[in-house]
Amino acid sequence: MNYLKLKIFIYITNIYLHNKIFGKLAFESILKFKHIGGDFMSNIFDNLADRGSVFKDKQFLDHRFLPEHLPHRDEQITSIAKYWIEALNNVTPSDVTIYGKTGTGKTAAAKFAMNQLKEATSSKDVYIRTEYIRCTDYTTEYQVIAKLCQQMGRDVPYRGWTKAEVVNTFRDIFKKTAFGKNMILIVVLDEIDILLKNDGDGILYTLTRTDNVSILSISNYVDFKKFIKSRVMSSFRDREIVFPPYGAQQLVDILQERSDLSFINDSLENDVIPLCAAMAAKEEGDARYALDLLRTAGELADEKESNIVYGALVREAKDKIEHNKITDLIMTLPVQQQRVLEAILKLTMDKEEITSGKLYEMYEEVSKGDSVSYRRIFDFINELEMLGIISTNTISRGRGKGRTNIISLQCDNDILEHALYST
Ligand SMILES: Nc1ncnc2c1ncn2[C@@H]1O[C@H](COP(=O)(O)OP(=O)(O)OP(=O)(O)O)[C@@H](O)[C@H]1O
Ligand SMILES: [Mg+2]
After folding, report:
1. What spacing in Å lies between the alpha carbon of 226 and ligand 2's midpoint?
2. DSSP assignment letter at 228
3. Is the CB of 298 under 6 A from ligand 1?
4. How far is Cα 138 from Cα 143, in angstroms, rounded to an integer?
5. Which residue from 79, 205, 290, 363 puts its CA 20 to 30 A from 409's CA?
6. Picking from 42-46, 191-195, 222-226, 232-236, which range would have the lowest pLDDT averaged per residue?
């Protein structure tokens, strides 16, 4: 019996020692593994965050950032204010329309004026509301009015009601005066041309026929009024403000202010800002493009672990932006349009003169039986031309031979090839 007890004791001690020794070893090796594998086990973001950067705060180069000061837009902002000042005297301001090409500061100036008006209102005995609507997000009259109702505390669903129900709810807001005062509503309809093209001029009809509503419309196209019928035009007597493209020197001033906020001191070589400004001035004076160039050049400097941004990086940034823009555009085109582009690319590489007939033949070959009609190809050609990917040129073949459309690519073959074949 004693012998048995002794055996059990030895057995248990063995297990205990075994566990203790090998358990410790195993535990140590886990620790060791963690240590050896330190590069993997520590957080990857720590490593990336530790890398130096030319930026001190990139958000100031973001499109959505609204600067406190907008150089070279004083005149336009003052014009808006001259109309809106009426609201401070309890009079509904005239409707205003802002025109200008992309990146000319229309959205920024409108938002700036809205903020200024809010500030001015706080010390006055008036009830003014300003509401900003981006018509690329709210593309029908129903959606815009529903959004306005919701912003002003009415529970309106985004679908399901009739248009009349939504419009009546909207108009009710003005009947019931808040705190006994008349409310004046200023609605900023940014990119209004998209809404008008998509859903007609009903929105303007409704808003112009609601008391105490003033509209500030923003459009990239001077001819957006072609979408407005005369019955609406008669009550939409807007004042127009033009935003001209920025010149190179103006862009230098804009970039200078933004770069002081975003880059570490002395991290930009002297030619960087003038170069971004000159390139953007060529692109129709687009401040957004200028900011993109500057930000991308800074990102390239970080990628190359350079603590200085230099001119060559701006040129590289230009190619990168161009590349991404075209690639994004092409990758989101419908399949049949991509095939038309593929056919144009093949003919271009074969150095062929591209007539619509030749294009259709090549397109059929590319589509391998799944093709659309010859007539439909003309719509595609128009759309691709509007996007700036191709251009067409009508030439005369001489007497009695009629005229022919010659198509040519407007973007780099390599970029197109990459975009088409990487989808
Ligand atoms: N005068 C300026 N000062 C500082 N930044 C500016 C100025 N004008 C434009 N920007 C900046 O350039 C970018 C583009 O401006 P904005 O969005 O106002 O252009 P837009 O005319 O509305 O263009 P789009 O027609 O494409 O909508 C924004 O980041 C804006 O802050
Ligand atoms: Mg805008």
Report:
1. 20
2. S
3. no
4. 5
5. 290
6. 42-46
Could you tell me which residue, 37 or 361, shows the higher pLDDT? Answer: 361
CATH architecture of the domain 248-329 equals: Orthogonal Bundle (1.10)
The span from the CA of 135 to the CA of 118, in Å, is: 22
Region of poorest pLDDT, from 13-17, 43-47, 194-198, 211-215: 13-17
Residue 54 has pLDDT above 90, yes or no: yes
Ligand closest to CA 189: 2
Q: Is 274 in the pocket of ligand 1 (CB under 6 A)?
A: no
Mean pLDDT across 210-217: 94
Residue nearest to atom 8 of ligand 1 (CA): 105
Domains 248-329 and 333-421 share a fold: no
Q: Find residue 404's DSSP bridge partners.
A: 395
Alpha carbon of 63 to ligand 2 centroid (Å): 10
**Strand partners for 7:** none
Between CA 256 and CA 252 the distance in angstroms is 6
Question: What is the average pLDDT across 115-131?
Answer: 91
Domain range summary for the chain, segments of one domain joined by +: 2-50, 74-243, 248-329, 333-421
> How far does CA 110 lie from the centroid of its chain?
17
Instruction: Give the pLDDT band (50/70/90) at residue 97.
Output: very high
Q: Which ligand neighbours the alpha carbon of 243 most closely? A: 1
Residue 235's pLDDT is what?
84
Cα–Cα separations (whole angstroms), residue 403 to 29, 192, 359, 385 = 82, 38, 16, 19
Residues of the binding site: 104-108, 246, 258
E-strand stretches of 179-319: 183-190, 213-219, 239-243
Report whether residue 262 contacts ligand 1, using a CB cutoff of 6 Å.
Answer: no
Phi, psi of 3 (to 5 degrees): -65, -40
pLDDT of residue 348: 95
Tell me the range of 7-16, 34-43, 212-221 where mean pLDDT is highest.
Answer: 212-221
Q: Specify the CATH architecture of the domain 333-421.
A: Orthogonal Bundle (1.10)
Distance 190 CA to ligand 2 centre (A): 7
Q: Which CATH architecture has domain 74-243?
A: 3-Layer(aba) Sandwich (3.40)
